[in-house]
Each structure stands twice: as structure tokens, then as C-alpha cells.
Specification:
This protein has six helices and four strands, in the order αααααββββα. The protein is mainly α. The protein binds zinc ion.
Length: 236
């Protein structure tokens, strides 16, 4: 559009400063019409190049005035107010047409750009969340490498019930705290060991059980405890 505009400006200047006898005869009477059409095109291209309409119209008109002054100066053409009026009206029509026809296109382009931006932001958020989860999972991954099963593996093999109190565990019992860290609730599942690993217990299936975090902590705190009440639900 800018290239087209530059070509149109140069073309207008060249045609305007040609000696009168080089302008085709039949058109000489329609001088004002040529002015109008030429400047309508100029106005349209100026708006299409990205200028706002008052600026576009002002620039086109300024060019018309300057050319008329130049025509007055070269001697073989003349300065005519009527031409300037035709230039102004033509440019106004061109600018009007351009703003009317191009506005929906520009709005659409802006919508598309904004949509892309939103999607990019969503992708970045998802990646950040994934990294955060990876970091949070790291200790569990390290433990798994040493042979410890994750609670998901235990749940898959033995079911989702807590072996200490006999009620189900709740994987949804977790909340994000104010700083964005995940807080696990009391009824969230964890891996409990029949014989603790520190006491020589193994990671084998017969030594691991699924338990509520609450129940496993209660058992650790008091190994003599025989009965475990169902922990209060803490998830929302
Ligand atoms: Zn329990």
C-alpha cells in the first residue's frame, strides 16, 4: 500500500507539472474531474497506508495546494483555486470510501491478532503450570527411581480405599494456597508401608498400602493405634 501510495504521489506530481499541450485533448475540459478522481485515489491509498482520516485528507489536500503553487511557478501551467477545491472534494470522497470499506477488514485483523495473543498466553500458562507440576513431582519421581511406587500405582493394584480406616481416598482433596502452591488435604491418598522402609521394609507390593495422608500420619505418630476413624473431608 505504501509503494502504491508513493507511485500515485509521484504520478500525480509528474502529470500535474507536464506542459498543457502534452495532456490529451479530449480530457482538457474535464480537468476538474481528473483532479477529483486522482485525489480520490490518493485519499484512498493514504488511508489504506495506515493514516487516520483527518491526517490523510490533510496530506492529500496539502499535496494539491503545493502542486497548484508549483504550477503557478513553472509558468506554463496556472494556479487555480477551482482545482484545489476539486482536489479537496476528491480526496474527501476517497478517504470516506477507504474508511468505510477498510474499517471492517482492520477490525477483523485486530480480532485475529488478539485471538492469537490470547492463545499464546494460554499456551505459556499451560507450559508454566506443567513446569511447576514437574518441579512439585520431582521428589516423588526420585523416590520412584529408587523403587518406591507412587500412590497412583498402589491405587491401581490395590484399589483406592485407605487400608487403615477402610473408606475411600480422595485424589481431588487438594487446594492451591495463596502463593499458588498445591496443598494436599487429609483425605488425599499416600503410600503407607506395613513395615517402614527405615525399619527394613521393602517397596514390594505386599509391603505397600494405600492410606489417607491423615491416617498414615496418625499411624506414624502412634504405631500402637489399632483403629483409625475416617478423617474429616477437607476438599471443597
Ligand atoms: Zn483412612
Amino acid at each position: 500500500m505504501r509503494v502504491l501510495l508513493a507511485l500515485a504521489v509521484v504520478g500525480t506530481i509528474v502529470v500535474s507539472l507536464l506542459p498543457p499541450d502534452e495532456i490529451p485533448g479530449p480530457l482538457s475540459g474535464w480537468d476538474w474531474l481528473m483532479h477529483g478522481l486522482g485525489y480520490a485515489l490518493l485519499g484512498f491509498l493514504t488511508v489504506a497506508s495506515g493514516l487516520r482520516w483527518p491526517m490523510a485528507w490533510g496530506c492529500a489536500l496539502a499535496l494539491g495546494v503545493l502542486i497548484e503553487i508549483a504550477q503557478g511557478a513553472v509558468g506554463y501551467r496556472s494556479f487555480e483555486v477551482r482545482d484545489i477545491v476539486a482536489d479537496g472534494v476528491g480526496a474527501g470522497v476517497g478517504v470516506l470510501v477507504a474508511t468505510r470499506t477498510l474499517a471492517p477488514v482492520w477490525r477483523h485483523q485486530a480480532d485475529v491478532a488478539q485471538q492469537a495473543k490470547r492463545e499464546g498466553r494460554r499456551d505459556r500458562d499451560a507450559q508454566r503450570e506443567q513446569r511447576r507440576l514437574d518441579r512439585a513431582m520431582k521428589p516423588a519421581k526420585v523416590a520412584a527411581k529408587r523403587g518406591a511406587p507412587t500412590w497412583q500405582q498402589v491405587a491401581q493394584r490395590q484399589g483406592t480405599k485407605c487400608w487403615l480406616c477402610g473408606t475411600r481416598t480422595y485424589a481431588e482433596d487438594r487446594q492451591r494456597d495463596a502463593s499458588g502452591r498445591e496443598q494436599l488435604g487429609r483425605t488425599f491418598p499416600c503410600v503407607d508401608y506395613v513395615i517402614a522402609v527405615e525399619a527394613g521394609g521393602t517397596h514390594e507390593d505386599h509391603n505397600v498400602r494405600l492410606a489417607h495422608r491423615h491416617c498414615a500420619a496418625a499411624r506414624r505418630a502412634n504405631p500402637a493405634l489399632a483403629k483409625f476413624g475416617r478423617p474429616p473431608r477437607t476438599y471443597s
